[in-house]
Amino acid sequence: MTPEEFDNLAKELHHEWESPQLWPAIETAVRSPRRWRRWAVCAAAGLAAMLAVALYLEPRAPLGKRVLDGKSPLLTEQALAEVSAAEKVYQQSIDRLAKLAEPKLQQPASPLLRSYAEKLTVLDEAIEGLHREMNRNGFNTHLHRQMASLYRDKKQTLEEVLHHD
Amino acid sequence: MAGDVLPIPIDILAPADSALQAVESVFRVHAVRMKSIAYNLLGNQPDAEDAVQEAFLRSCRSRDAFRNQASLHTWVYRILINLCVDEGRRRRRTPWQNAGTETESPQTGADVRAALRQALDRLPVRQRTVFLMAAVEGLPHAEIAAILEISETNSRTLLLDARRELQTILRA
Fold first, then answer.
1. What is the largest CA-CA distance in chain A?
2. Engineering a disulfide at B60: which of A30, A74, A77, A87 sits with its beta carbon 3.0 to 4.6 angstroms away?
3. Model confidence over A116-160: pLDDT tens digits?
């Protein structure tokens, strides 16, 4: 089955049927009064009041300590340098893996290898885009996490390519 | 007037009509696709309709949904997917085990569709969901990413993984 045939087959799984009573049933259910709602609102209000009191009474940590608790999304300069160095080594090792897989991917001998090659292209494009974003804002830990996740996926895909006969 | 108590409207906790209208417009545009996704995840029309109905009810009953109408449909899709996945886990049985007994006309390709549905059941839930939304329903990856709260790249790679897995299963 060619990729085109497969895509056409997938579209055939779309299933349609008439259900004229569906929206009226939803509307009726939404409009029907629900007794527990008043209780829920009262309970929520009570809970919110208790939470407000608890927050007011909680001893507050100094701002400096709160930032150093590690919950800030921004990395310090030294930590960033360490992360960048570790990332570079990791990325270089995956690039070496990519070199090993290159002959198989340049002329894929099967649809499976073509699919792997396509996935690696998607991952490489995403990695490139993320690199650009990180150049603008390298302190954002979320970007570093995303990058690590992409490289993990790339490593796994390359391993599958290398093990594919 | 002093001493008078203002009456509390009985319907004060019901969703406002404007909010209901917003949900209805989502229903008009997306219900067909939503039913199809639920059908493919649950295996029959009544369950699919129940799931769609519950998804819309839950979205109506939470006022948070109406704060950002631009993402309302995304939110309803997310509720629906979660409902179907939970229902699938609860049943502990794959919906298309008896795919051959579905009321499908014995036309050419029916067997292949049944085989594809059974193969889909063997995929991890994320891959299956992305495949149904992207390859079957034609939703763009940006939208799928927003619904499943994943990155667009993740959506793309999940689709490629799903396609590859399915082709491998079908070839076996």
1. 68
2. A30
3. 999 999 999 999 999 999 888 877 888 888 899 999 999 999 999
Within 8 A of A18 by CB-CB distance, chain B residues are none
- Take residue B70 and report the two structure tokens written for it: 């631009």
Nearest-10 Cα torsion for A114, A119, A121, A122: 150
CB contact under 8 A, B35 and A19: yes
Smallest CA-to-CA distance from B59 within B37, B82, B40, B86 is with B82
The rounded Cα A94 to chain-centroid distance in angstroms is: 21
Give the position of tokens 């794959």: B94
Tell me: the pLDDT tens digits for B43-94?
A: 999 999 999 999 999 988 776 555 655 588 999 999 999 999 999 888 766 6
Task: Provide the number of CB pairs (under 8 Å) joining chain A to chain B.
Answer: 105
Q: What stretches in chain A show pLDDT beneath 70?
A: 33-41, 57-75
Chain CA centroid to CA A134, Å:
16
Q: Tokens at residue A126, please?
A: 């995403």
Dist CA B146 CA B155 (whole Å): 10
Nearest to B157 by CA among A135, A87, A160: A160
Beta bridge partners of A140: A74
Model ipTM value: 0.80
Q: Which of B25, B30, B19 is nearest to B52 (CA)?
A: B30
Half-sphere exposure of A151 (CA within 13 A, CB side): 21
Looking at beta carbons, which residues of chain B come within 8 Å of A123?
153, 157
Distances in Å between the alpha carbon of A132 and those of A125, A155, B101? 11, 21, 53
Within 8 A by CB and 6+ apart from A92, the residues are none
CA atoms within 13 A on the CB side of B12: 6
